[in-house]
Amino acid sequence: MTTINGTKQEFVDLINGLFAAQEVEGKDFALAISKNISILREELKEVEEKAQPSEEFLQIARKVNKIAQEDEEGAQEKIAQLEKDNEKIVTARRMQLANIQLSLKDEMSVELYMLSKDILPDNVTAKQINQLEKIIE
């Protein structure tokens, strides 16, 4: 294992790349991918928990989605009114998201399994390699 330094955002991007590479075949490659996903899930748990919207906000979001799906005339006005009627909840969610964006700039260090070029499967794509570049040696 190797200590990797980066921002929380870089590690979020890396875990997304690991998820995207889950279907690529190769035993050693798959083991490293799986282990790194487990490690990053644990390391990024706080970010995920802080990003969870409140139940009140989820109720508003469901109403907005329902109005948007009905696609009736005046939908935008109804949505705007719903947001205005629930301004405190909507503002709290916007602040929550802004704080998360700030926290994603924080630096962190994580011990991860490196992917040697020897275990990269033949069918791995350039896109997948680019997403995993931080852990390829």
Mean pLDDT: 93
Number of helices: 7
- Termini, distance in Å? 12 Å
Number of strands: 2
Percentage of residues in strands: 5-15%
Task: List the uncertain runs.
Answer: none
Largest sheet: 2 strands, antiparallel
Shape: elongated
SS class: mainly alpha
- What pattern of helices and strands is seen along the backbone? EHHHHHHEH
Which percent range fits the helix content? 55-70%
Task: Going across the biggest sheet, name each strand in turn.
Answer: 1-2
**Cα gyration radius (Å):** 20 Å
Structural features, described:
This protein has 137 residues and is mainly α. 64% of the residues lie in helices and 9% in strands. The chain is built from 7 helices and 2 strands. The chain has helices spanning 8-20, 27-43, 45-51, 55-70, 75-85, 87-103, 126-132, and strands at 2-7, 107-112. The chain has a two-stranded antiparallel ribbon. α1 (8-20) packs antiparallel against α2 and α1 runs antiparallel to α7 (126-132). It is elongated and about 60 Å long. The N and C termini lie close together (12 Å).
Question: TL;DR of this structure?
Answer:
This protein has 137 residues and is mostly helical. Helix content is 64%, strand content 9%.
Blueprint of the fold:
Elements: E1 2-7, H1 8-20, H2 27-43, H3 45-51, H4 55-70, H5 75-85, H6 87-103, E2 107-112, H7 126-132
